Amino acid sequence: MAGEESRLRVTKTDGVSRVEFLDRNILDEANIQKIGEEISRVVDEDDKPRLLISFANVDHLSSAALGTLITINNKVKNRGGQLRLSNIDPQIHEVFVITRLVNLFEIHEDAEQAMASFS
Amino acid sequence: MAEPTHSPQHFRAELPRDTGEIHRFTGEVIGAAERMGYSKAARFAIRLALEEAVSNAFKHGHAGLDPSLTLLAEAEVSPEEIRLVVQDRGPGFDPGAIADPTLDENLDKPTGRGLMLIRAYMTRVEFNEAGNRIEMLYRPPDEHA
After folding, report:
1. How many CB pairs under 8 A join A and B?
2. % helix / strand / coil in chain B, to the nearest 5?
3. Are A26 and A65 within 8 A, CB to CB?
4. Among A33, A95, A108, B130, which one is most buried in terms of CB atoms within 10 A?
């Protein structure tokens, strides 16, 4: 995006858009909103988007970031796509367990496993 | 590496709605916790609770109010426990009225998880009667000597 520094790295492999975060902490609302808008644009690129979000290097995640992930998940589902999450730090994974979001998201240990799970 | 210190430390700040200021305050509290020997898991819990409480206070407590209003954040860090207080200048809310975000019908709703996460990670959480002041207490489990 011209004039705006992205906080994401987005690559496309075998029809899957892979999103990685550049920040260790995903906490503040303004940043989370930008990230959400950027991922949303990635989802809009395909009719049936296949999206992998990797959390490698992410140490902290706020409830607002969880909310953005849920919004993205809803959008991907509405478009008949698939979303996978991977490389989640054990402490952050515990947040997904406490909130029961492990039941909403398909979470894989690493990106390779997640990539293999797309149909 | 610095030796752990055991003198209680007190932090108090009027925080504006400014990410840098909020992170600086959180960083000071986390730094004190680290110097007192709190584990990585404990520091994760403290950071989460403090950030969520401040975020909730600005987003919900100060909703519709002057955006330049500050809130009061306090922390007392000792080897035995960490006490955190966040007080906003809004009218307060009823913490019992928040829907349970872990129910199946609420799982795909993007909001309402901050307070439940605070409760999950803290030893004790209390509100004042008005509902605009949250006091959070963290006592480490046995691994912290």
Report:
1. 59
2. 35, 20, 45
3. yes
4. A95
Percent share of chain B, pLDDT over 70:
94
Contact criterion met (CB < 8 Å) for A99 and B113: yes
Structural domain boundaries, residue A71: 8-116
Number of domains in chain A: 1
Q: What pLDDT, in 10s, does the model give residues B71-121? A: 999 999 999 999 999 999 999 999 999 999 999 999 999 999 999 999 999
> A92: nearest CA in chain B?
B44
The interface predicted TM-score of the complex, written ipTM, equals 0.89
Q: Do A104 and B108 touch (CB under 8 A)?
A: yes
Per CB-CB distance under 8 Å, the chain A contacts of B24 are: none
**Is A89 within the bounds of a domain?**
yes
Do residues B45 and B86 lie in contact, with contact meaning Cβ atoms separated by under 8 Å? no
Say yes or no: domain B9-138 is CATH 3.40.640.10.
no
B44, B55, B113 member nearest A66 (Cβ)? B113
Q: C-alpha angle with apex B81: B77 to B87, nearest 5 degrees?
A: 65
Q: What is the mean pLDDT of residues A83-92?
A: 96
- A20: CATH: 3.30.750.24
If phi over 0 gives left and psi between -120 and 50 gives alpha, with beta otherwise, what is residue A101? alpha
Q: Is residue A2 part of a domain?
A: no
Q: Do A28 and B44 touch (CB under 8 A)?
A: no
pLDDT confidence of residue A21: 92
